Amino acid sequence: MSYSMRRKNLVSELNLMVAGYSGLGKTSFIRTLFGTLKLRSGPGSLKNKASAAQMASGTSTPTTEPTSPSATTSGGLGTKANGTKDSVGYATGELERTLNSFEALFEIEESAEKINLTLVDTPGFLGSDEVVDAHCDEIIAYLEYQFDLTLAEERKVRRNPKATDNQIHACLYFIDHSSTRPGLSAADIRILQRLGTRVNLIPVLSRADTLTRAQTKKLKQAILKDAALHQIQFFQFLSPKLAKKLLQQQGGTEDHEQKKKRNSRPGPGDDEEAEENGEGEEEEEEDDEDEDEDEWDPETLEEKAHLQSLAPFTVIAKEEDVEIKDKQGKPVQGREFPWGVLNCFDSDHCDLSSLRSALLSSHRQELKEITFGYFYEKYRTEKLLARTKSQHLQFQQQQLQSAGSTASLNNNNKTALLKNGGTLTPKESMLSVGSGSIVGPWEE
């Protein structure tokens, strides 16, 4: 098979999750996005993923096959193992409140590329802090379960070359802007700090049709300020290194460069310490030469800078069960108001079009690379270190138990010797007195 034929038949995996408080339009967002997808095949052709096991706060063991989280949960969070047929029905049928997490699987084509797209819809956070934290535990367990699937595959003697990529490549976190205080709530901060250790976070402002441009600008600034204050790392469309390169191409001043660095906070994989301190400049120059030239293309950098300036992204979901047409009479996904028609994919109305392009096209590969190279490797390291520590503690316990049994046996022998009229040597007397202190395995 020729290289062009292999490229034609190559299928990429992309797994996205939506999360956030209840009632923010997460399911409506998925249904709106589905209306723009070009399906490669009819319903029911895509098999269920192994990751369709149910979410819960359980753990998994990667030694052989991962153990999926248990089926029942206290918060009612569970994944229904549905294929493309049910997924299409879910995206086009009657809109209902999401009570169980749902994996919607679609075979799509985007820019002449084949993609197996998984959209994970999760129930909204609701209730007390304890309930919200338990809900977050379940989502974390689900994310880690996907890593365990990869870890189990890597430990096989013969790996499956067609193994499915189950890792969640990005989590779109929907932020409620109805609060009197603009920015992130205390619960949002707590959730984002935890989710940010396992997945790429992309902040989203839903129901943007209720916001003016001034309110939107104020909200975005407040959210980014809170994220920086609480060390929450959102996905960086334009890293500090790329921002520096863009400014060099544009001939920007040093003051402008410093301002750009502050606006583009470092994310996973960036050498922020070296850059802030002016260290490692020679290494950066060497790395620049090794990078793909397309990455340093001015047009590409401009696109990355534009996407970075949009975050958090404003989105608007289409109006359900109503056919909307623009001024030219062309059907659009949007909402109709007394003053006119709102198009969900008009960049003048919201950022949904830019977000869609970034997820499905321009930044799809980057999201996957960071997921595997940073988040998975971090989890894998933590898992193996924890396992090594557990084995070491188990070995110590066995050594202590063995030493304790030997000391008890020696004491019994000495007692029997004394009862029979025998005597102890000075060394035996010292050991008898010190028998309460068990010698550790690191001492002779």
From TrEMBL:
Q: Give the Low complexity compositional bias ranges.
A: 57-74, 403-420
Domain (Septin-type G) spans 10-386
Q: Where is this region: Disordered?
A: 44-84, 246-300, 403-422
Q: Does the keyword GTP-binding apply?
A: yes
Q: Which InterPro entries match?
A: G_SEPTIN_dom, P-loop_NTPase, Septin
Asked if the record carries the keyword Transmembrane, the reply is no
Could you identify this protein by its name? Septin-type G domain-containing protein
